[in-house]
Specification:
The chain is mostly beta strands. It is about 5% helix and about 45% strand. Strands 2, 3, 6, 7 and 8 form a five-stranded antiparallel beta sheet that branches. The termini are far apart.
Amino acid sequence: MDCARWREHNRISHLRRHGECSSDQRTRISLFAVNIKLGETASNVTAQAEDSLHHISPLPVEYVGTVPGLNWLTQIVVKLPDALINAGDVSVGINVRGVASNKALIKIRPS
């Protein structure tokens, strides 16, 4: 499957808040990154979000792993803190062993 079709197939149209996938009813966000060394674990990766008022919130990293069939692409699952539930636009970035990524702008709104 080419990259454009993969992105369309796996596009997230909205985040679910009401515990449809987790027992703790917390929202998770899947981030996708390239150029991360195979075998990196959640203990080597940190994530943070910055809101429009420049408040920085750590995002607990729960999972880091290669996307099946696309060994060049890494999925990072983070837990959204309650403080960001209605934050609107936030800038999200990751750090791997102290090396910072580019930031991505995401919109967080109530479901």
